[in-house]
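User: I'm writing a tutorial on reading structure tokens. Could you give me a worked example: one chain, its sequence, then its tokens, then a sentence or two explaining what the tokens reveal?
Assistant: Sure. Here is the example chain.
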Amino acid sequence: MDSQAHERHRRQAAVEFALANMGLSGFTPSEEVQRHMRRFVDGEMDLVKFVKGVMDHAKREV
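And here are its predicted structure tokens:
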């Protein structure tokens, strides 16, 4: 597995873990958050930008 594939796999595993935790807590991510998750997994954004985007979305929803 090359380094890009390894990084994608690592990001996918992190997103799946987060989704499982959200589901256990009774939450379902919005379409916008799901798009952010896909962009993060695809390497279009780093972790800092991903978390900031999700937090900004959460603030708008409150």
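What the tokens reveal: Residues 3-61 form one domain. The first helix runs from residue 3 to 24.
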